[in-house]
Amino acid sequence: xxxxxxxxxxxLLSAAAVLGVALPTLxxxxxxxxxxxxxxxxxWHAKMWTVFKDTLDKSAPGEFDVQINLNASLFKQGAExxxxxxxxxxxxxxxxxxxxxxxxxxxxxxxxxxxxxPVHQQKVFNGPVGKALFKTVSDKMDxxxxxxxxxxxxxxxxxxARNVKxxxxxxxxxxxxxxxKDWLFLGNxxxxxxxxxxxxxxxxxxxxxxxxxxxxxxxxxxxAKFYEVTKQIVLTSHLVxxxxxxxxxxxxxxxxxxxxxxxxxxxxxxxxxxxxxxxxEESQLVEFFKKEGLQVTTPDVTAFRKAVQxxxxxxxxxxxxxxxxxxxxxxTQ
Length: 333
Ligand code: KDO
Hints:
Layout: H1 7-19, H2 24-27, E1 31-36, H3 44-59, E2 64-69, H4 80-85, E3 91-94, H5 96-100, H6 118-126, H7 128-141, E4 143-158, E5 174-177, H8 181-189, E6 193-196, H9 202-208, E7 213-217, H10 218-223, E8 232-248, H11 249-253, H12 257-282, H13 285-291, E9 295-297, H14 301-313, H15 316-320, H16 325-331
Parallel strand pairs: 1-2, 1-3, 5-6, 5-7, 8-9
Antiparallel strand pairs: 3-8, 4-7, 4-8
Helix pairs in contact: 3-12
The structure holds 3-deoxy-alpha-D-manno-oct-2-ulopyranosonic acid.
3-deoxy-alpha-D-manno-oct-2-ulopyranosonic acid (KDO) binds at residues 37-39, 43, 45, 77, 95, 178, 199, 216, 220.
């Protein structure tokens, strides 16, 4: 009979036979869960993956090999969903804009001033609106959304300080946005000139002046150290931002019912850890940035909200949003 063992395994098995010991862990095949994210190590939505791994190692010892790849080291930002579809990646955290590429109605969550606050966000995604949309996501993208993370509320962060009260005050500002059309639309709706750039290139872009500004939640500004190369944060609060922990259906469906439950619970633990920390830190960071020498200013948020909402309403976006969806989101309490 042919011997299908690889040389290492063969050597181990003969050593084990000589020593008379069993090799139980070798006999077991671990399910490999590769994770890819552009998040920097100090971000809560990077650290949450360690919570995911630790939770799973505890609840299902020896059953999973969780491999965490930060800083877009495995796949570049925005390429994760395609990698999952090709079978090269098992898990990631997807933005609404990533989903909107294949599920156009999901673009409703890329729109500025749509979700009111983090509580509204969790209620929308954990309620009937989220349930129906995640079913479509599963059908069209072949991934299962396991939990919803609060990335934070996005603010405008400028390289040089200026008086910003309304969108007109951002005219001509090269505002870096992640590189997809939904993000760029948001940047332009804010009154700026949206400029696409990967997250990993933003620090240098701000430092050298190839961009004038970027937008991100305060915890991301802290974790990626953008405050070192900028002078002002304008509290526009234009997007209550989400990330969805998602696993490929091929991987998820190959698990036993007990494993599915444990993976889902680990994803929930990760999201809770991220959400609690992002919320807590967000409430303290204005002081931190001021101490770092930044101006933190409050614009006319009503003027921003009106202009941004009007831009979306008169655009093609509103046409792809199913009738009644915005009302259902607004009515979610
Ligand atoms: C960004 O590129 O600005 C963004 O905040 C977009 C998010 O969807 C997410 O990809 C995030 O970057 C990365 O995880 C880095 O924090």
